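Reviewer 2 asked us to include a model.

Predict the structure of this chain.
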Amino acid sequence: MPSKQPVAPAPPASTYSDVDFKHLLEKDEVFKSQWDPSSNAKYLKTADASRVATAKSALEKNGFGVHLVKDRVQAFNKIYELIPEGASVATAHSTTLEEVGFINYLSDGKHPWKNIKDAIFAEKDQAKQQELRRTLGGVPDAFLTSVIAVTEDGHLLTGDQVGNRVGILIHGSKQAIVVVGSNKIVKDDSEAMTRFKSHVLPAVDAYTRKVFGFPKITVGNVATVFISYPAQRIQVIIIDETLGF
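Predicted model (structure tokens):
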């Protein structure tokens, strides 16, 4: 059985500041016109301690493991602690994971895990690469991502374009680690969808324009995760910072 790594290195700085929420909103005129600060500015604020405690208690009742940390450095340390040495690791795109330094750390190769993306991108035949995404990429030991929202009654709202994030989070990975700023805590499932449509989607579209040159993204899947099954399979790290979309 692989052992856990008890001591984390210092997290590297993020090199993705040009595609975080703040910079996309400043630079993308379409985003500026779509994002209404009067209704969405609240999603850029950290949740107070009572809301965090309510969400934590509800998540735990629903079988999720929950870890409260004060900042992105503690979040990086907790991620490092949770992933066993030698584990295969996959990630979905996550601005939050970029901001805590985890994406840069995983990319530099100097870590104790097996980065599944290394094996996938080493295959240059596109058909074979796609098959690796479906097989090797669909069943990692540890899958790391963020989510659209965490509700006070202990649910996670997630979504994606083709099904990889939703499928691996719900069932594909042996372990899933969800990393979120407390600004993603909302009252209930209804508000989670409101946050998704009014706040997250315009930001993701701006990211798509910046990175891929497409006008917007097509979201093919949105799912609510009500419980972690088996219990503790999904670990949620809640950071007392405003992070991600």
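The radius of gyration is 17 Å. Residues 189-212 form the longest helix (24 residues). We have added this to the supplementary material.
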